[in-house]
Amino acid sequence: METTIAVARMYLAGVFDRVPALRMLLAHSGGTLPFLAGRIESCIVHDGQLVGEGKVGAARRTIWDVLREQVYLDAVIYSEVGLKAAIEASGGADRLMFGTDHPFFPPLGTDEQGTWESVTWNAEAVSKAVGKGSEEAGGIMGGNAIRLLRL
């Protein structure tokens, strides 16, 4: 929830408009932001104070615009359902990058190959969400980070 609150406050304060070159990578697939962006947008459009101050109009960039232009999300969500929502909210799989919770949550166990279960679960979520071996999966699993970080 903290991620969603922080991004919403930055948006309402005009940070993304004042610093159009700003790019952010949000942890946990943006938290609840992909799920609540529509509600945030609705609250803005129906806020009497913002309307009265002229901050709501046709030329205004929406929270969706910010998500699709200035925000990247990690793919640490452990579920293809949440990952699909993050992909949709951010405008495409090219806005997501694979990640894990290590070292914050060190692995409590490994699978039979000795792989950390958290890595396996997130990799499986990517495969289920966009198709194993697909171009989108390749991007999420490393290609997007290489492109974004200019490696």
Could you please describe the fold and organization of this structure?
This is 2-amino-3-carboxymuconate-6-semialdehyde decarboxylase like protein. Keywords: Decarboxylase, Lyase. This protein has 151 residues and is mainly alpha-helical. It has a single domain (2-148), classed as TIM Barrel (Alpha-Beta Barrel). It contains eight helices and three strands; from the N terminus they run H-H-E-H-H-H-E-H-E-H-H. A three-stranded parallel beta sheet has the order 1-2-3. Helix 7 packs across helix 8 (135-148). The longest helix is centred in the last third of the chain and has 14 residues, at 117-130. The chain starts with a helix and ends with a helix.
Write the layout of secondary structure elements.
Elements: H1 2-12, H2 15-18, E1 24-26, H3 33-45, H4 48-52, H5 63-69, E2 71-74, H6 80-90, E3 96-97, H7 117-130, H8 135-148
Parallel strand pairs: 1-2, 2-3
Helix pairs in contact: 3-6, 6-7, 7-8
